[in-house]
Amino acid sequence: MSSQIPMRVAVVGATGFQGGAVARLLAERHHRVRTLTRRPEGDRPPLPGASFVAGDLGNAGDVRRLFEGMTHASVLMPLVYEPERVRRYARNIAHAALDAGLVRLVYNTNTRIPHGPTSVAAFETRRIVEEVLRDSGVPLVVVRPPVYLDNLFSPWNGPALVDEGVLAYPLPEDTPTAWMSHKDLAEAVYAALTGEGLEGRTFDIGGERSLTGAELAEAFGRGLGRTVRYLPLRPDVFERGLAQLLGPETAAGVAGIYHHMATGTDPLLMAADDGVSAEVLTVRPAPVDEWVTRQPWQVWSGDSEESPFPQG
Question: Where in this chain does the record put each NmrA-like domain (predicted)?
Fold first, then answer.
């Protein structure tokens, strides 16, 4: 029903890559989009069709202004891993969503979440948000993605892939992983916003097939038309490189996922769900080699920018 009737959607996180993909898809399909940002007007990313509310998730009044008059919401939390701060964000969102009388809120956890408690802030803070939203009574659908292909189309992966045939990533080579793109994520969120009878459901999105590191490299090789080998990065090396871009605290939060995966205690956490989410949400992520073929890899050929990660 909602796919035919224009929605008014509050997109939390629309100034980032994942939320931006959701916002653009919604706008392309003629739904109204509003997002919250702390960036000054001249520093905001281009989001045609979206309107901006200046403010911060930590301010309840700002969040209420974001949600006022909205019918739906897509929520992705920022890269913040302090439990109490994240809990405050989640409570502000829940209260604003209830006050607005939302038809549905879709929460993207940004990662799969283990069944039991862990010491990993990247998992536990996202679990906090899910629990706060669910306990609030807001009509909720949760999507839990695995790992994004777009992470590999980057200054620290692209040159090595194109020039050396090396695909470096901080997952063990034998870890089965259901890779997906930001575009596939946006389609899944859209389906979760508009599908009938999905309230209360949680979906481990990501497609029907898992790939090991070697299989991922083979798919990249088909897409690039060259031999590609997989290089598993040590999570501490990945974290040090990421710290150059995001700062040490954020890098530690993000890298916690990969430190956890390196222990081997939860090897299927990022694996495919055998098509359950694809069937219910009627979304099937594109095969990896097809995604690779569509990317303009030539922009990285001969790139002089030094990668923060070792490539060989």
Answer: 8-240
H or E stretch including 35? strand 32-37
Q: What is the pLDDT of residues 62-115, one digit of tens each?
A: 999 999 999 999 999 999 999 999 999 999 999 999 999 999 999 999 999 999
CA distances from 230 to 163, 211, 213, 222, 301 (A): 14, 12, 6, 14, 19
Check residue 309 and give its pLDDT.
Answer: 39
- Between CA 67 and CA 180 the distance in angstroms is 29
Terminal C-alpha separation, the chain: 52
Token pair listed for 30: 């003629």
pLDDT tens-digit readout, 148-194:
999 999 888 899 999 999 999 999 999 999 999 999 999 999 999 99
- Rounded to an integer, what distance in angstroms lies between the CA atom of residue 170 and that of residue 39? 31
| pLDDT tens column, 229-251 | 999 999 999 999 999 989 999 99
- Residue ranges of domains in the chain, CATH in brackets: 8-144 (3.40.50.720), 148-178+210-272+286-300 (3.90.25.10)
Sign of CA dihedral 125, 264, 285, 290: positive
- Encoding tokens for residue 92? 């502000």
Can you tell me the distance from the alpha carbon of 117 to that of 119, in angstroms, rounded to the nearest whole number?
7
Tell which residue, 222, 196, 216, has the closest CA to residue 146. Answer: 216
Give the chain's mean pLDDT: 92
